[in-house]
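Example (one chain per record):
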Amino acid sequence: MRHLILALSALSLMAASASAQTPAAPSNIIFGKDIETVPMAEWEIVQRGAAEQTGARILIAAGTAELARAPADAVKYDSKTFRFPSGTLRVLSFTKKNGGVLHQITTETQLYVLKGSATVDVRGVNTEIRAGDVVNLPSGVLRSKKNKAEDTTILAMTVGNTMPGAKAAVVRSKDTPDTALPPGPKAGVDTAKVSVQRFNFDGNSVRVARLKGPGQTAPANPATDVLIYLASGQMQITVGDETKEVSAGDALREEAGKSTHWDVRQNSMFIATNAPTAQPK
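Predicted structure:
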């Protein structure tokens, strides 16, 4: 009997140890207040002569310590990064007084202009983008239009898509209708009203949803992860068993296979994109 008790005690200790070592599942909701605002600087140099790399290139500094090495004419801005298992959302806030917009495109796969304007390469063509526009697969340097710097906020998204060989494209807000869902089960219950702008391109899309309440949206069960940035308003989000209050500046993931719905507290707007885990080959 003593051996049996000892064996059971050992098993209990092992189970407790295993439980302690198993990390909790990450939250699908990330509050903006919990994300560090990182001061950034970027500047352009032109390298000539026998250097290993010649021509114009962008240098970057991140954080207060690194900013000390930035030249006086560097463009300075703030960055907040929301990291999820299936992708990243990054909010870049530029101001006219700090030099306007300058940012080297690296991993970003989609851009949404929350405010202001900039230019960026789209399939090798320098293209102006304004508030409400979307770019798929941007390249080159995001910068202010010459002599037209203004306060600008960019939502930069890094996610996968489902189409090999997807092509870069710009989709204009003015060309994308804001379509209201008719009252009924698809829109939700109570007095919830939902309208959606859908920006379609190769292998993915960006959706801008506008919600009016109070009311509850219809439940959705996404086949792939969806990453969302709440641009304005306040709502309660339920993802599976997790329910939290969110407001402007927060980000979240609608996790694939988990039922999701919103309780609209006040008029709100969010930007959403799919985040498939399978990368195109």
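Caption: Residues 1-20 have pLDDT under 50 and may be disordered.
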